[in-house]
Design brief:
Length: 211
């Protein structure tokens, strides 16, 4: 079954390139593309995409506000932010608003299928720099370390790797374990921390002094 994708990008040339990438992919299905997000609630409800590619800087409602609007009624759709700079503070704001990850525009043609596959598997594609920004933001008012979550030593190690923005494949290679084993550990981490995503897990761990 193809993965339904909607694109929000105000640059006409880039939006056309994205649409072409999606159209020519056997795994992806282009459901719609828009230069602005003024009607985003209606569009997302009607099109029911599994993945949204969202430009951060758009006229009218910007990408961050658009993410907030989507999350008010839909927690399931995966939202990948499109940005020019990997150290843009707006990327952190978008992730905190509920984005699933981000993709540098200059790498879109090479990394789009991989980024979409990652978010659908529960991963959050982001650079180590963005991961550090998330942690630093959460650690501004850290709480005392607590052992009430009963994470195992391996779970804590894997959580540390997630906080660095490492992919499941990198974690598996580092510990010489299978991808399925990594997924099992991460599922257990999510259950213990009572979270549903990588970003939530990293944010909560940083806020509560677990990292």
């Amino acid at each position: 079954m193809q993965i339904g994708v909607v694109v929000y990008e105000d640059n006409n040339n880039l939006r056309e390139s994205l649409c072409n990438l999606i159209t020519f992919s056997t795994d992806l299905l282009l459901l719609g593309n828009f230069p602005k997000a003024d009607q985003i609630e209606q569009q997302v409800k009607e099109l029911q995409p599994e993945v949204i590619l969202m430009d951060i800087d758009m006229p009218g409602i910007n990408g961050i506000e658009a993410v907030k609007k989507i999350r008010a009624f839909n927690q399931q759709v995966q939202i990948i932010m499109l940005t020019v700079f990997d150290d843009n503070r707006h990327v952190l704001d978008a992730i905190c608003a509920g984005a699933s990850g981000y993709l540098l525009k200059k790498y879109i043609s090479d990394h789009l299928p991989e980024a979409i596959a990652q978010v659908l598997q529960g991963e959050a594609p982001m650079s180590p720099g963005i991961a550090r920004m998330v942690i630093q933001s959460m650690q501004e008012t850290p709480k005392p370390v607590t052992d009430s979550y009963h994470l195992t030593p391996r779970e804590k190690e894997i959580l540390g790797h997630l906080s660095k923005g490492n992919s499941y494949k990198l974690i598996a290679a580092h510990f010489y374990i299978s991808l399925d084993t990594v997924r099992t550990h991460i599922k257990n981490i999510y259950e213990k921390l009572k979270v549903h995503s990588q970003v939530e897990a990293v944010s909560k761990a940083a806020k509560e002094g677990l990292l």
